[in-house]
């Protein structure tokens, strides 16, 4: 693979730092590396593969297509809203981790194992889906292809690392008995059914993201999707319980076989061998278990998925998109 000249926007954040780890773990051949962040951390030194890099301030001028041809963005929605189109217009291919562009019909929303073909040769802005959506659509794609999907109901158990450093700090703070500084209630010894802002519908924005993004990635607007998203006092690793109704009757053996063969999935068939957030943390597979028929409704089953929300739910998925684009465009 040819070397890639690359920028990371939000390089000092939790996802930004994990980008560097994943680039190293997946052995991506990086040439020029430009690390960008806000005034708060510009000037700091960050090391990558034994070399020190100075973090630079993000400005429109910093988005220079002569220095880099790809940019991984993870600095929040407002930064992506302003800067991602500038970079894309300059000819830089942006892979954006924020929710700013995900539902734009002109922007592909991609999980490489599911819909890499959504990216066209001229696309310079590619959106990385929400973390809980990514780990859900891997097994759902298998079910969709085999039996069709009528309805999907999500309940999530999301780690505090999903809120970046402010989330992990609030868990530590409230575990010490101090007042929360980020979440509305103490997250220690608690479950908060509130992720992102509340919408007039009564859903949270996180729930609406899962609903909309699932339909977009699977290319199925007719499918009914609903979600309840819950923040739990887990440091890292999201869990999602999924209740699925299929169009045609499902066959569990056929499903097990297809899930076992699907890229990116680690299947745990035995009920007591269910995967946990701790097992998911620090690796790149989406682990799937607790698959069982839901006898309360026709053609319906339950399953459980866990994944590292910072790796496969953010950085790894984006780096996999990068690598596939490098291959396809070289
Ligand atoms: N954590 C997750 O599980 C997860 C999963 C999927 C997607 N994401 C998305 O990834 C993004 C970052 O999340 P995170 O968890 O890494 O957050 P974080 O730990 O708070 O880091 C935010 C990063 O963005 C930079 N930044 C903030 N404002 C900036 C500005 N005006 N100009 C330039 N850089 C700026 C920060 O730089 P300074 O430190 O210099 O301010 C820092 O490097 C968010 O859009 C989030 O929704 C997160």
Strand content: 15-25%
Taking the sheet with the most strands, its summary is: 6 strands, parallel
Total domain modules: 2
The strand line-up of the biggest sheet is: 5-2-1-6-7-8
Notes on the protein architecture:
The chain is of the alpha/beta class. It has 2 domains: 4-129 and 314-329, 3-Layer(aba) Sandwich (Rossmann fold), CATH 3.40.50.720; 132-309, Dihydrodipicolinate Reductase, domain 2, CATH 3.30.360. It contains 9 helices and 14 strands. The protein has helices spanning 14-25, 77-89, 112-115, 131-147, 165-175, 205-218, 252-261, 277-280, 311-329, and strands spanning 4-9, 30-37, 45-48, 51-54, 56-57, 70-73, 93-96, 125-127, 149-158, 224-231, 238-246, 265-267, 286-293, 300-307. The strands form 3 sheets. The protein has a 6-stranded parallel beta sheet, sandwiched between helices. A 6-stranded mixed beta sheet has the order 10-9-11-14-13-12. Helix 3 (112-115) links the parallel strand 7 (93-96) and strand 8. Helix 4 crosses helix 9. It is globular and about 60 Å long. The model has no long low-confidence stretch (mean pLDDT 97). The site of NADP nicotinamide-adenine-dinucleotide phosphate has 28 residues, from helix 1, helix 2 and helix 9.
